[in-house]
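This part of the workshop introduces the protein records we will be handling. To make this concrete, we reproduce a full record directly below.
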Amino acid sequence: MNSHIPTLLLREWMQHKRGWLITAFAPPTLFLAMLPFGHVSDLPLEHRELLALAILLVSACAVFAICLLVALFQLPGLARRDVQDRSIEFWLSLPGRPSESLAATVLAHAWLAPLGGAVVGTLFGLPIAMSVLAAQGGGGAVAGVDWNEVAAAALPLLLRGLAGTLPLLLWLAPLIFVLMAASAWLKRLGVPLVFVGGLVAVLVLDKVYSIDWPMRALGAWNAQLSRVMVNDGPGLKAALMSTDVNLWAWVTQDFGRTLAELASLQFLGWAAVAAAGFALVVAKRSRAG
C-alpha cells in the first residue's frame, strides 16, 4: 500500500512555510539586531569556550522551543481547518486515508518544523556567541576562544538534542491528540473545556475524594517531558566540566536511558490516550466527508 504522507507533508510545507520561516528566523535575527544597543556584562570570560558552547546551545534550544510552542498552539485549530475551508472534500477524494492526513499534519507541525527551528538556532548560535563575547570583551575575547574545541563539544550535544525531539513528540502525543480531538468535536470550546474541566476534575478527585493517581500521573508525565532532551542534567554538567569524559559516549548513554523509558507502563498508558485521541480526530474527519 502506497503512503501519501510525503505528499501531505509537502502540502503542509506549501501552506505554512512562510509562518514556519518567520518563527524560526525572527527571534535570532532580532536578538542579533538588538545586541549592539544592549549591555552585556558579568559574563565569565575566564571560561570562554564553555560560555560560547552554552550560548550556542541556548540559541538552538530557544528557537526549537519557540517553534514547538507555536505548533502546540496551532494544532488544535488545524483539526478543524479542512472542514472549515471544505478542502476535506478534496483530500477524502484521494486514495489516501484521513489517518495519513492527520499524521502528516502532526509530524509537520510538531516535529519537522521545530526540528528545522533547532537547526536555524544552531546556525545562528555561532554568530550570536561571537557577538555576545565581543560585546563584553571586544575582539580579543572572540579571538581567544578555541572555536574548534567549541564545535567538537557542540556536535554530540546538538545531535543528542535533535535525536531527543522524536521521543519528545511521542510523550507530547497524548496532549496533542486530546486537544485536537476536543477541538474537532467541540470546536472552539474544546481546548478550554479540556484544560478547565480537566484541572477541576483532577483537583476535585484529589482534594475531595482523596484520589490522587491522576495528579501523580500528570506529575510523572511532566517529569518525563523535562528530561527527554537531557535525561541526566547533573551528569551533563559534570561531563562538560571534566576533561576526561568522552561526550560521544555520554550522549549515547543518555539517549539510551531516554529510549528505555519508552518501554514503560507509564508510556504505554499515555500512548493509549494518544491513540484514543487520534481515533476520535480521524472519525470526525471521516464523517466530515
